[in-house]
Structure formats: structure tokens, C-alpha cells
Amino acid sequence: MAKVIATINLKGGVGKTTITAAVAEFMGGLFGQRVLLIDLDSQINLTTMMIGEDLWVQLNNAGRTLADAFRDAVGGTAEFDIETAVQRGVSPVRQVSGVDLLPSSLDLIELQEEVAALHLRRGGGVGAMYILRDAIAPVLDCYDYVLIDCPPNVGPITRNGLAIADAYIMPTIPDVLSTYGIPQIQKMVAEFGATLGRRIVELGLVITKYKANSTVHRTIVRNLRRDPTIQNVLPTYLREANAISAAAEYRDYSTLRNRYGNQGQYEELESITRTILTEAESKL
Ligand SMILES: Nc1ncnc2c1ncn2[C@@H]1O[C@H](COP(=O)(O)OP(=O)(O)O)[C@@H](O)[C@H]1O
Ligand SMILES: [Mg+2]
């Protein structure tokens, strides 16, 4: 059975998409895992990092994105085909194989409202939260890991992601505003898990955009580590680096070092991925 891990934080710009993309590529390229990436964010950043904008436009026009799965569910049609929607071997890094992608769409913005309306029409319950689960069920067994990049909100699309998640990671910049919402996320996920009748495991905080020379960053990381309400702060931090922001560009890369940077970034991401794999193996 695939282990499903959601990446979530209610704040934008904290490195959710970057971590999700990198962890998937390291899982596939370095650790031999078969990975399905699910891009649930209507900003489509993960999608364009993996397949570029041109292919995304084609897929979007052809009804081959996740938006079409949700559109079927709210409209009562059955046009979405998971086999043609899943993009195989997507990473633009030559060293990487085994990473597939279920692309996102800008249309998810308006569909979010429609899924919320469907939920109400059905008198609440969890039915409208299982649209994604039902859509991907036929391919789930093909993977070791499914990584879901969630949008920065707790709407019905995010909940569809959590409804298939065994666990979640929370990327966060160690500054005042970015860490502010952590208790809300924990509470929301715990309550939603209870509604589903199971636990969604908190795998840990991933410290991103870390600045070792910042007193604020050092202090906040220290406090997070001592905080008894936080299950786990991953021991390796992803430091702020130009190479990491440049990695968002869709172009040919020969290796993971080539995409993510050779001044410690590769080692940081390797270690973060290794820890996530170890934690997932022991806790899920
Ligand atoms: N460690 C890092 N160093 C430098 N830039 C980063 C780092 N992590 C992410 N970024 C950049 O910060 C921006 C926001 O990151 P992103 O992963 O898109 O965040 P989110 O998905 O949480 O909105 C992007 O431009 C990304 O390239
Ligand atoms: Mg993002």
C-alpha cells in the first residue's frame, strides 16, 4: 500500500511546493521509490515545476487535470480518466525516474466553491471529501509514496487531500508570522481525522528558508524544538539559497545536484528525504 503524505501550512510562500517537489525527486532519483505527486493547489506551481507550462496548457484544455475529477463529481459526469491524467516520469531531472504527477488547474479556484456547495447539498458528512480518493483509487497500488501539495487553506479541496493522507509534514520558515498558524493546522487536521474515524499522523515540521545568521531564526527553531505540542522538528533544515529558488524553473537538469545546488543544498534535501522515509516507515 502506498503511504500518503500531505504537505500543509496555512501560510503561502513557506516552501511547501519546493519541499514537496524536492522530496519526490529525491525519493525517486536517490531512494528508488515510486512516487505519485498530487498538486492540489490552484497556483499550479508544483505542476509547472514538473512538466512546464506548455504541457500543462495542453492537458488543461484536454480535461486531463485534477480539476476535471472535481468537475465530474459536482456535475455528475464521468469524463475524467485517471490513466490519461497521470503524467508518467515527469521530473525534468535526467537522474530521476519513478515520479508521476497528477496535475493541478487554475479552475480549482472556482470548483472549490462548487465542492463546498455539493457538501452542503448532501447535508454535510464526508462524501464530498472523498472525490480525490475515489479518483485515484485505480492507480494507488502502483506507488510506494503519494505526496500531496495542499493549498494554503482548509477548504474542501485541501480536505480531499487530507482524506487520503496517512500523515502530514508542515514546512515552515522559522519566523514569527510563519509559525503563528501551526497550532491551528494541528487542531484542524486532528479534528478532521476524528471526523474520518482515524488518525492523520504529524510527521514533523520541516524548517525552510533557514538563515543561520538570523537571531530570530535561531531562537524560534530552538523554541520549536522545546515545544511539547510539536511532535517532531526534522533535524536538517533547508537553508535559504539562490540555488533553491532557481530550482523552480522548468528546464533540463542532468542531476539532482544540478537542480537543487551543490553548496550544501543537495545534502540538506537528501537528509530531509531520508528522515521522512525513516519516519514514515516507522510510524505509518
Ligand atoms: N530554501 C529556499 N531558499 C530560497 N528560496 C526558496 C527556498 N524555498 C523556497 N524558496 C522560494 O520561495 C518561494 C516560495 O516557495 P514555495 O515552495 O512556492 O512556497 P509555498 O508552496 O509554501 O507557497 C518560491 O519562489 C521558491 O522558489
Ligand atoms: Mg505552493
From TrEMBL:
Residues 2-195 form the AAA domain. Pfam families: AAA_31. Signal peptide: none annotated. Gene3D superfamilies: P-loop containing nucleotide triphosphate hydrolases. This is ParA family protein. It comes from Skermania pinensis.
